[in-house]
Amino acid sequence: MDSDEDEYVAKNPTSKNAGKSGMAKRTRKHGDDDVMMLLEDSEEDPGEADEDEGEGEEDDDDDGEYYGRKTKKKPGRGNQKKKKTKVRIDDNLKGKDGGYAWEDKIKRSWDIVKEDKDGSLEGLVSGLLEANKMKKIYKNVTPFQRGIIRSLILVIDCSRAMSEKDLRPNRYSLTIQYALEFVTEFFDQNPISQLGILGMQNGLSMVISDLSGNPIDHINNLKQLKKKDPEGDPSIQNALEMSRGMLLHTSPHSTKEVLIIFGTLFTSDPGDIFKTIDHLVNEKIRVRIIGLNAQVSICSKIVKETNYGDEKSNYGVILNEQHFKELLNDCITPLPVIKKLSSEAEGVQTTPQQKTFSLIKMGFPKRITEVDPSFCSCHSNLNYGGYICPFCKAKICSLPAVCPTCNLMLISSSHLARSYHHLFPLKNFEEVKFNEVDKSINLESQEPFKANFQYHQCYGCLMEFPVKSGSIVDPKLMKTTSRYQCLDCHKQFCIDCNVFIHEHLHNCPGCESNV
Amino acid sequence: MDAIADTTIAQAPGAASHATEDTPSLLAVVIETNPLFWVPLQQQTELKSVIESLIVAMNAHLAINNSNEVIVIAAHSGKAQFLFPDPNVLKNDTNPPKMDSHSPNSVSNKSTSPTPDVIDDKRQYLKNKNIYRQFKLMDESVFEKLEQLFNDTVADNSKFKSTVPGAISMALTFINRMRQVREGITMNSRILVASVGGDQTMSYIPTMNSIFAAQGMRIPIDVCKLGNDSTFLQQAADVTGGIYLLITNPNGLIQYLTTVFFIDPSIRNYVALPVNNNIDFRASCFITGNIVDIGYVCSVCLCVLSMIPSDKKCPTCESTFDPQALEKLARKPFVKRKVVANGNSETPNATPTPAGTPQPK
Amino acid sequence: MSSYLFKDTVNEYLENLPYSMKSKLFKSPATCLAIYRLLPNLAKFYIMSMVFHEKPVNSRIWDVWVKDSDQGKKLEVEGLRRMKSLNLITEKNNYLVLDEHFRESFRNALVGNDSHHAFGVPCATDENNKTSIDFLDEFATKKWESILHFMVGTELDELPSVGVLSLLKHSGLMEINGDITKRNLTSVNITKEGFSFLLQDVNAQIWTLLLEYLKIAETLNMDSVDVLNFIFMLGSLELGKDYSLEALSETQIKMLEDLRDYGLVYQRKASSKRFYPTRLATTLTSDSTTLRSVSSAMNKAIRSAKQDNEKDVKEEEAQVDFVSGTIIVETNFKLYCYATSPLQIAILNLFVHLKSRFSNLVTGQITRESIQRALKSGIASDQIIAYLEVNAHPQMKKLAQAALNKKIEFESVNGMKASHLSLRNLEIVPSNIVDQIKLWQLELDRIQAFGGYLFKDFKGEVEYKGLLNYAEEIGVLLYKDNANRKFFVTDEGRQQLIDYASRRTKRQKKS
């Protein structure tokens, strides 16, 4: 990946400088940046976290060579001032012991498997399974301000590299297949958002589907795309410039995002991509990239620049099909909004909130049915019924939409409601400890003890918990009680319900039935 | 070869489609039993007769197919509870809801259970009554638990919040479990909600969340509404593809239950369902609770407001709004213009004339 | 699919009963419930909506209820036909009336006002040493297996009872020569019917035998209504409970003895005053889904029994056809089956070219020869496919389910209508195998005969098209020849078509 970058730099010596100066500016700004929180009681100060990232970025500026140099110097300076001269290791590369990840001891996946005295693995295996499930649902539940109203441009690589068959049936088909699912899911979760789709082919960028809020159009267009073959080289710059154009006229309270699915290891651009990056930064367009091949330096730069230094969560390279899907799904959840000062270049200090905090006027139409068909004002189709704009009384055939007559944003209340669980997330359940009821149990001692619990069954599904009250537990084998407790209503749930409740339901059955 | 290609021949008599049959189905019934809500309905009907009708309907559901199952959840005042399967009684493995394991220990020490002899009498009574065993198990449990529920809870006027969303959530978690236990066996599921309370008693967000979860699991929610119409439940039925019916004459309830609410998911594709086309998709204001058709939405938390809050702060997320923007919104004739102009800067002239400003109802 | 075979045979039997007997049957709630369960789904819906509705129903209402689609119309016609032929409903001047006896009994079953002891009388007193469910399972399995073993010709220590032997002979499943009553058999041969019998699932097998039993019972002057009622009642009893003989008629008590031989009921002693239904009996009126769990429960019983006395080698052989989910079929026609029982291997041998046998596994190949040999001995291709499906390894079912889910998801993403989706069936056995087996059968059946009526000499294209479309819609069309304006419909379809034609002409006259 380094060689890619070097090659690029060699071709564009000026661009490197331009990029650097832009970067320096950005880094300076970081001190003021922070993540907006709705509530004060968050566990860690996100501002600080951001600063760390900022510093990390400085290190990163010069790629691998930088580290090389520093490491060589280490023995000389290390003895005098231990604290300061300790090699600063990028979080990405840091291993468990504090050194580089590759210096860690080898951990084999089978090392953790230990049989109990009967030679059974059951307790351990079920524990591992649960841990796996938990990983899935553990998320930060601090209510962020999220950009609920989004404008996203999905950029699909349609270049020659996409005909590779390392994904089945090939990269191109799978990507379009996943993109279809993505579109459906995106509008399911972000009903009042807008989506546009671009393709990169023959060094050009082509519009596959215009920016709109109607999933059916996108799906039809993507299906059309499926019939074509990938060819030529991709150009990220062209794609980004076109995205900029498409995002230019979006409403001010919406986020501007670009998601690139990139299957190539290079980009063939007509001009200076670093300038484009600067433009993106200025226009607060955030770019996410999913790589299908290997990490590409220019991609990580784009992502880092446009996401305030947060590269890790926004640039992913897929490991397999499943991981590809997961990365795409990550993009469905709205991003936390990062509050920032308006561009310094303008030199005008305005209060930051103004842009994002406002009231939006919306109409909630009623659905009607008619005996005789009439034309709808959006597509001029004859149909029996639809939605009536409460403002101008025009008939619309589907929601959400912008009324073509009076430009009022029309939406149904259930569309809004779909987004609420992002804004008011359900608190994570806490695992019940063995000494929940019987405080005398010492969990540290490795002696078997008698477990004692308040509940016998999962509140949600009535399944009995595997570890029964009154049974003898050996802490060496039984790592988990398989009970998870809601912190508000103190009802206990099994792992499957826990996953289901947090992934799909977003309601605690206990709390809701105890009002 | 030709014979197979010729569809007319291939679909010889007797080959009538069995495709729709043979899938067992699970019916989850949510009954609202909060006594407070039943008071206004006293003139029309009473809880007891409704429960009786429901029981017959559930028996009918079990009668369709040997592997059909029923779960019953009561949304009582202050708590929602499973009536069947009974969480406290150990189940032998012939009972419909087969769980992984049931230890006999679970029966023990339940402080709230009534005196044993009362139950015994009842059991004896039901035992002598000659009735199909699947029905018997369910009916017994429902009556017993209901009685227990009413004995335990004192009528409490402060508990006017409905637990229906909680009960639906419980039904969903239970169905989710069943789907995991029965790997490989497909099972249709649906939820029937018998509700009496109005919209104002239900909390909005949990209701909506459970509706969307049901939609995601392809579980239709049928609503048998007594009393007044409920917008939330209408939406529930609409979103999930269920049936909503406001029952004005509860005396004929059993007929409704055995016709409209009896349509099994497997034949839903072929049967014309009663449709409710004029559904109110309007939202209610977070402050006043009024229904709004043109409202303001906070860009941060999406809460719906019917007017601009006086303290210029969002009542839900407490973010301060930009005073300039609010000022513009407050100047009524220009409200529209401003918002639209932001979105479509090229066509500011297309905005409607001030005369068309919304009339706040 | 195989469960339909039994449903169809039972239905056919019931449909052919005279009305007087049916109305007697309708007096028992348990029988009503069982008959109800055998109906198609749409018919169930119709019946249920009429049970609490006293007045006759205009037949047009059904047309309104059912959506205007080909599939829906076919289901409706089929449902109505079944209800009519069972005499559940009668049509008078376009109004449908539900049979009064049926209405009353069925309502009683639902509401629980029953005075007929239709659901059995449980013993009031507890027996000293209760019989466990595991024991019942073991008992049932053993009895039933011995019959099947006898059929495939396994060497048995003890021949099945006289009743069983004569039943097998009368039903034409076996050719048995010699004196049955003295158990002095000269030759025993399985027939074509016997082969196809072996491939059915347990439930269908039991029903086949019970229906044969009914025929014999009639000749023995046993009251068929009593016999049927008892069979249906068994289906609604509770496993593991003991029931008293009190409420049973004499015929029914006589039956107990025979049923004991089939493993349907258990009595400690022949003179005992109580009986236990076994799992075979309690699931008589269930469908395949429950049955699958039944067979697995059976397996569990067997296995636990084995653990108890591991040294008993006889028990090892007891693991017979109740073992479900052991067959894996690959797309290359190779078949693997985890089987130790000679019975299952013998059954497989009917249509598979078996290659090698290991301690717990047999492998084989499905070939044209092996299938055609089976077909020639009287086994239908549908039976073979059904057998493979029912006994498919759980892993195959899982894969099929996953594939189906993927398909549905894909189609719904791509905006297909929900109505199309539900029609997708689970493909447990690879579709190329299924098609090939069917094709092999077609090679043998060059000619297929259908009884029916030819319609020709129409007045014109309009009339021809109108009637043809109707015939197609209700699914009775077998053959059409557009050029010569002729078409051929099934026996059942004829009357409907004539009705339709006369209605048409009337309408035309009016206008």
UniProtKB/TrEMBL annotation, chain A:
Pfam family, one: Ssl1
Entry keyword annotation includes Metal-binding: yes
Gene Ontology biological process: DNA-templated transcription; nucleotide-excision repair; regulation of transcription by RNA polymerase II
Alphabetical keyword list: DNA damage, DNA repair, Metal-binding, Nucleus, Transcription, Transcription regulation, Zinc, Zinc-finger
Composition bias, Basic residues: 69-86
PROSITE patterns assigned: VWFA, ZINC_FINGER_C2H2_1
Domain VWFA: 151-341
Zn finger region (C4-type): 389-406
Cellular component terms per the entry's GO annotation: transcription factor TFIIH core complex; transcription factor TFIIH holo complex
Chain residue ranges for the region called Disordered: 1-90
Feature: compositional bias, Acidic residues: 40-65
Molecular function in Gene Ontology: zinc ion binding
Major site of localization recorded for this protein: nucleus
Compartment(s) where it occurs, according to its Swiss-Prot or TrEMBL record: Nucleus
SUPFAM superfamilies on file: Cysteine-rich domain, vWA-like
Lineage top rank: taxon: Eukaryota
Gene3D superfamilies: von Willebrand factor, type A domain, Zinc/RING finger domain, C3HC4 (zinc finger)
Its job: Component of the general transcription and DNA repair factor IIH (TFIIH) core complex, which is involved in general and transcription-coupled nucleotide excision repair (NER) of damaged DNA and, when complexed to TFIIK, in RNA transcription by RNA polymerase II.
Family recorded in the similarity comment: Belongs to the GTF2H2 family.
Protein name: General transcription and DNA repair factor IIH
Record organism: Saccharomycopsis crataegensis
Origin organism lineage: Eukaryota, Fungi, Dikarya, Ascomycota, Saccharomycotina
Automatic annotation (TrEMBL), chain B:
GO cellular component, one term: transcription factor TFIIH holo complex
Keyword Glycoprotein: no
Region (Disordered): 87-119, 340-361
GO molecular function: zinc ion binding
Keyword Zinc-finger: yes
Subcellular location: Nucleus
GO biological process: nucleotide-excision repair; regulation of DNA-templated transcription
Record's keyword terms, sorted: DNA damage, DNA repair, Metal-binding, Nucleus, Transcription, Transcription regulation, Zinc, Zinc-finger
Ranges of biased composition (kind: Polar residues): 102-115
Alphabetical list of InterPro entries matching this protein: TFIIH_Tfb4/GTF2H3, vWFA_dom_sf
Coiled-coil ranges per UniProt: none
PANTHER family: GENERAL TRANSCRIPTION FACTOR IIH SUBUNIT 3 (PTHR12831:SF0), TRANSCRIPTION INITIATION FACTOR IIH TFIIH , POLYPEPTIDE 3-RELATED (PTHR12831)
Subunit structure: Component of the 7-subunit TFIIH core complex composed of XPB/SSL2, XPD/RAD3, SSL1, TFB1, TFB2, TFB4 and TFB5, which is active in NER. The core complex associates with the 3-subunit CTD-kinase module TFIIK composed of CCL1, KIN28 and TFB3 to form the 10-subunit holoenzyme (holo-TFIIH) active in transcription.
Family that this chain belongs to: Belongs to the TFB4 family.
Role played: Component of the general transcription and DNA repair factor IIH (TFIIH) core complex, which is involved in general and transcription-coupled nucleotide excision repair (NER) of damaged DNA and, when complexed to TFIIK, in RNA transcription by RNA polymerase II. In NER, TFIIH acts by opening DNA around the lesion to allow the excision of the damaged oligonucleotide and its replacement by a new DNA fragment. In transcription, TFIIH has an essential role in transcription initiation.
Protein name, as recorded: General transcription and DNA repair factor IIH subunit TFB4
UniProtKB/TrEMBL annotation, chain C:
CC per GO annotation: transcription factor TFIIH core complex; transcription factor TFIIH holo complex
Keywords: DNA damage, DNA repair, Nucleus, Transcription, Transcription regulation
Listed GO MF terms: ATPase activator activity; double-stranded DNA binding
Source species, domain of life: Eukaryota
Gene3D superfamilies: 3.30.70.2610
GO BP annotation list: nucleotide-excision repair; transcription by RNA polymerase II
Positions of the Transcription factor Tfb2 C-terminal domain: 435-500
Biological role stated in the UniProt entry: Component of the general transcription and DNA repair factor IIH (TFIIH) core complex, which is involved in general and transcription-coupled nucleotide excision repair (NER) of damaged DNA and, when complexed to TFIIK, in RNA transcription by RNA polymerase II. In NER, TFIIH acts by opening DNA around the lesion to allow the excision of the damaged oligonucleotide and its replacement by a new DNA fragment. In transcription, TFIIH has an essential role in transcription initiation.
Protein name (Swiss-Prot/TrEMBL): RNA polymerase II transcription factor B subunit 2
Species in which this protein is naturally found: Saccharomycopsis crataegensis
